[in-house]
Structures are given as C-alpha cells and as structure tokens.
Amino acid sequence: MNGLSVKQKMQGLLAIAFLIALNFAFFAYVESTFLNQFFTLEFIGIVFFVSYLITFFAINKYPDFITRFNNYHTIIFSIILEIISIVIFLFFQNPILVIIGFVLYIVSTNLIWINFDIFLEAYTSDSATGKIRGIYYTIHNLGWVCAPFFAGSILQNIGFDWIFYCVILLAILLLAIIKFIFSSFRVKYERNHFSLKSTVISVVRDRNMERIFFIAMLLQVFYATMVVYMPIYLNQYMGLNWSQIGLIFMIMLLPFIFLQYPAGYLADKFWGEKEMLTAGLVIMAISSISVFFIESNSMLLWAFILFFSRIGASITEIMRDTYFFKKVDVENIHIINAFRSTTPLAYIIVPIFSSILLYFLPFNYIFLILGLFITSGLTFSLTLRDTK
What we know:
With 388 residues, the chain is an all-alpha fold.
C-alpha cells in the first residue's frame, strides 16, 4: 500500500479518525436545529425516523457492496455521497430536497464508519485491541471536542452556510488522505450474500455477544436522545444561546479524550470489561435522570451534569468496543455491520417514541425515561463474561 509500513498506516488511520470526527461533529449537534427551520419539532422526529430506517437497510446491504467493490472504493463513494448531501443543504431551501439531502447525509456518514472499522481492525491484534481502540477514541474525540465550540460560534455569528463549507472542506481532505494511504487496500472476503437473519442467529447463539449488542443499543439510544433533543432543550427551553451551548458541549466531551485510552489499557492489562461497563451505565443513568429535575439555566451546572454523563458514556463506549472487537476479526464484516446497525436502530426508535411522548408529557420527561431505560442494561453488564 504505497510502500507505507503498518505503523505509518496506523498513524494515517488516526489522522483520518480525527478528520472524520471533526467532519461529522460540525453538523451533528446542530442538525436538529437546522431541520427546525423547515419543520416542527414533532415532524423532525419523523425525518430522523425515515433517515435512519433507510440507513438501517443500507448498512445491512453494505457488506455485499464491500465484498464486490472493496473497502477502499466504497468509502470513497460514501464520502462523495456526503459531499452531495451538504451541497443540497447549501443551495436548496425546498423542504422535500432538504429531507432528501438529510437522508443522504445520514446514510453516508454511517457507512463511512463501517469502512473505517474494517481499516482499523485490519491492523489491530486481539491482545492490543483495548490499547489501539483507546488511542483511536482519544484522537477521534479530539475532533468531537473541538467542533461543537466552533460550530456553535459560527452558527451564532455567521449562520449555517459556513458550517457546511467547513464540512465539505474536511470531506475533500479525507478523500485525499484515504486515496494516498489505502488505494491498494485489499482484504479477501467470501463471495456470498450476507443475510440479516443468519447474522442475527449467529449473534443470539452467543449469549455474551447478545449482551454486548444490547449494551451497544443502550449507548446509542443515549447518544440519539442527547444529539437530537439536548441542543433544542438547552436553546429553546433553558434559554441558552449557541455560543454558550457550544462551550458546554466542548466541556461535556472532555472525558472522551482523557478517559478512553487509560480505560482501554486497563481493560487489556488488569481489569475485565464487565465491572467498567457497569460503572459507566450507572453514571449515565444517574446523570440522565438528573436532567429531568434541573430547572436552572446556569452554564456551569449544565456543563457539570453533561460532563458527568459523558464520563459514563466514554467508559461504556470503549469497553463496548474492546469487548466486541476481541470477539470478531476483519473477515466478520456481517457481524461488524450488525454491531454498527445499533446506531440507526436507536435513531429509528428514539425520534418516534419521543414524538409520541411529547404529545402527552413535558419535554424533560424524555430524559427521565432515558435514565430509567439505561438501568435495564445492568442486567446485561453484570452477567457478561469477561474476555480475560
């Protein structure tokens, strides 16, 4: 692959991880606000539902395309698809076209993560999974920490267009780096059709794999709720402006930088994943329930409670990935796909459930129910068998 060593390719992957995160995070925490310019809050839930329903089916057909066209060519295609979606946002104000653009954006960004997982897994040994994933998440989360502050400031002072210009620029840079490093990437896969039914059967036959899938689903439900509804809640119900929200989100995401590498290292060398997963879920549940009771618009208070919530989420995330990727190899792309399908599934469930809930209960009940739902994950984390 262009004469680069494995170490150089891994360094390139970490640079790509940072750029992907920066690319996605610029829009992630303001996407519901962008849609709110065209649609009501209840209809936004339907837009997310449709987008992620299509994404779910796209993800589960994606292994066939990767097998046929190779991981390199499919990631190039997905990044180009993302650029097209952003161009639609920039130049068209028709609500129907906005929905089409949003569907393309959600589908493409989810497919890109699958391609990246395959690249990363190809250069990771089982004994170093926790360490490598920890380094990857630390670099990746630097992008997520930087982007909300800048995106919030841009939105507050300039508007959405410059957010979109930044996203396009980052996507073009990604294309160039991936082409340079991975243009000759080849992994041989069996030429067969990947069946969703057979994938589900293979997962449920392994009770521990089934448990880690449920925990992955819980984590994605947490993320979906926070990404879609927390920015709107802070802006429209708590009265915070976008510069304040951007700063809060930057502080909120710091645990992902400082905790995931040491947590991954400890999971490899000393502790099992079970105890740390349980601690992470407890913290997520407590912080989500706390949001229900907060009536203050204090920036400091919101920064603290959301920072606390991401301590739990960061631990849960790295332990989830460490456990899962110790049990699969790069050839198991159908299992990796199913694992990443928890993201669109969460974004299918959360908007529809929340849209129904908002007809009957105040907005803050979303976070109470979220916290109670997360506590159900303790049944699965406490019965998980450690990989050690």
